[in-house]
């Protein structure tokens, strides 16, 4: 009804308020409210309305375009991993949160003001939550893949620093692993987009999901050194990007169903590092054990 701009602007307000509010927190429930609820709402309001816009502007090389777009989270994660760490060491945690909120607020506000959709040309049906899609086996399989992929991704991402400590690595080395994951993401997602356009979305999704499980069993579990763990962080970061590039598999079911599938998928697949509350994210954090190697 209002297009993507209004909810995105609301998301900017939520997210910026969450970061700035968290910088003044004195109790744990302040963190839950600001960095959990407000930032979660903010990222959801920004991400979900914008996810289908890019595909509207491409008829060919759509996965490549999505891969380049998704690589931005890897570049941002890499920059923020080192920048926030430096700010915490040299300034304070509070000002690190405020600066992060201001920077992300300015960038997202600019994006929200500049975004353009083609709803008038494409005329997608307004199916905010089409329950009829849940009767289709292919849609259910897509949602199951989204759920399991996100569950494994969140478990891996939030376990790497604990894993680093379990093999006697320093806290700074454990924190650096998150940056290496982001580096792999920035490199891997455009490559996955190219492969997806060439060989097909479903084939690419299945192949890289399988390869991700192989890297966990063959590299992560036996790892006992910093170098091998870095190798796993970079390789897994590149492979994990398959979900955010090929998750536009909704296009395979017809453009008229994209909005409905996207909103269904939003219930089970929310992003990492931004504390967006979703069930697999919550479950992925809960099932990992801080003292375990996995």
Overall description:
With 294 residues, the chain is mostly helical. Helices cover 74% and strands 0% of the residues. The longest helix has 30 residues, at 137-166. Residues 251-294 have low confidence and may be disordered.
Uncertain stretches of 5 or more adjacent residues: 251-294
Multimeric organization: single chain
Order of helical and strand elements:
HHHHHHHHHHHHH
Sheet/helix structural class = mainly alpha
Major sheet size, sense and barrel closure: none
Mean pLDDT: 76
What percent of residues adopt helix (DSSP H or I)? over 70%
Task: Count all strands and give the number.
Answer: 0
Query: What gyration radius follows from the Cα positions, in whole Å?
Result: 19 Å
List keywords for this structure.
globular, disordered C terminus, 0% strand, mainly alpha, 294 residues
Helices, strands, pairings?
Blueprint: H1 5-22, H2 28-50, H3 53-56, H4 62-90, H5 93-114, H6 119-122, H7 137-166, H8 171-199, H9 201-220, H10 226-240, H11 242-246, H12 258-266, H13 279-287
Helix pairs in contact: 1-2, 1-5, 4-5, 4-8, 7-8, 7-10, 7-13, 8-9, 8-10, 9-10
TL;DR of this structure?
With 294 residues, this protein is mainly α.
């Amino acid at each position: 009804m209002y297009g993507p701009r209004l909810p995105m602007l609301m998301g900017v307000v939520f997210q910026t308020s969450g970061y700035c509010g968290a910088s003044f927190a004195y109790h744990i429930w302040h963190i839950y409210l600001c960095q959990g609820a407000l930032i979660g709402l903010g990222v959801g309001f920004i991400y979900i309305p914008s996810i289908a816009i890019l595909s509207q502007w491409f008829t060919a090389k759509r996965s490549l375009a999505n891969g380049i777009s998704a690589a931005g989270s890897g570049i941002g994660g890499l920059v923020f991993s080192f920048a926030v760490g430096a700010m915490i060491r040299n300034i304070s945690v509070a000002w690190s949160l405020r600066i992060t909120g201001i920077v992300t607020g300015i960038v997202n506000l600019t994006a929200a003001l500049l975004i353009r959709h083609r709803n008038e040309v494409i005329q997608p049906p307004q199916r905010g939550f089409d329950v009829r899609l849940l009767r289709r086996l292919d849609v259910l399989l897509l949602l199951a893949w989204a759920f399991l992929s996100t569950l494994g991704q969140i478990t891996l991402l939030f376990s790497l620093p604990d894993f680093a400590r379990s093999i006697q690595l320093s806290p700074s080395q454990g924190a650096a692993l998150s940056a290496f994951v982001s580096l792999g993401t920035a490199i891997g997602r455009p490559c996955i987009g190219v492969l997806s356009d060439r060989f097909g979305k479903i084939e690419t999704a299945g192949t890289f999901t399988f390869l991700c499980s192989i890297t966990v069993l063959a590299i992560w579990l036996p790892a006992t050194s910093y170098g091998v763990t870095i190798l796993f962080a970079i390789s897994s970061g590149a492979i994990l990007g398959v979900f955010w590039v090929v998750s536009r598999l909704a296009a395979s079911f017809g453009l008229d169903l994209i909005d409905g599938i996207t909103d269904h998928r939003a219930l089970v697949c929310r992003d990492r590092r931004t504390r967006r509350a979703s069930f697999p994210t919550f479950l992925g954090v809960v099932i990992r054990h801080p003292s375990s190697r996995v």
